[in-house]
Amino acid sequence: MGDVRAPEHLVLDLRSDPxxxxxxxxxxxxxxxxxxxxxxxxxxxxxxAAGSFAFDRGISGHQRCAERPDRGRSGCRIMACPSALTPPxxxxxxxxxxxxxxxxxxQLLKQIDDLLxxxxxxxxxxxxxxxxxxxxxxxxxxxxxxLIERRAELDRRGxxxxxxxxxxxxxxxxxxxxxxxxxxxxEAFWDGDTQGWFVVLVAIVSRPGRHHDRFDEVPLTxxxxxxxxxxxxxxxxxxxxxxxxxxxxxxxxxxxxxxFHFTNPEAPDVNLPRWWDTQxx
Length: 281
Prior knowledge:
Blueprint: E1 8-13, E2 20-25, E3 35-38, H1 41-50, E4 70-71, E5 77-78, E6 85-86, E7 95-96, H2 99-103, H3 106-117, H4 121-131, H5 140-156, H6 169-177, E8 183-193, E9 196-206, E10 215-223, H7 229-233, H8 240-256, E11 260-261
Parallel strand pairs: 8-11
Antiparallel strand pairs: 1-2, 2-3, 4-5, 6-7, 8-9, 9-10
Helix pairs in contact: 3-4, 4-5, 6-8
């Protein structure tokens, strides 16, 4: 469980009963080098529901925060615990207790919070890494984990803007009609981040692109109905975002007069064949 592109994942250690949740590096020699992050699945679910779980890389479940980036016994980088936020002060402002947040200029921190409150995570990550002045500077995934946890804290305090409603099928059809390049197919495919899996719906057009020399993709929408915790609570499969992608994608494809493609709606995977892989060379 975790970002499909991240070097560390949560794994279930079935050698013990109850099975502990460990943070393990993908290049680790085995689970003996993992870092315990929860006593069992129930503990993990309870802590996520309570908002107290974080993807920190501490040495043990009890030593959850670090003063500086270092190395744990798994070889993973330890980062200052992103959930170490104190309650608001008399002015209603959040205070950070770990060294990284305290090292950031208050005005810059306000800019970061403003970006997070308007759900512009990528811009906040770029700002933190480029202008945060942290030494050593956080890596991409460290910065993302840190800011996702801070965004969750802002959300708990009711400071985030409401998420915009997902586009209707009619709106997706309007987006497809506005595409100038010839549309060859409508495709849905899986992708993931530190929050979990989601489905990307795109129109495939005839022009050279980043991933293919003959075809490009034009984004239509991204569909997400929750995080990876649903795997542990039995809410998925089936995946509601996949079903929505099929229904809306097929409607758009019928309107345009092209095929709809979704390699495997039942099982998230980022290494599945794309529509252009089915085309003759």
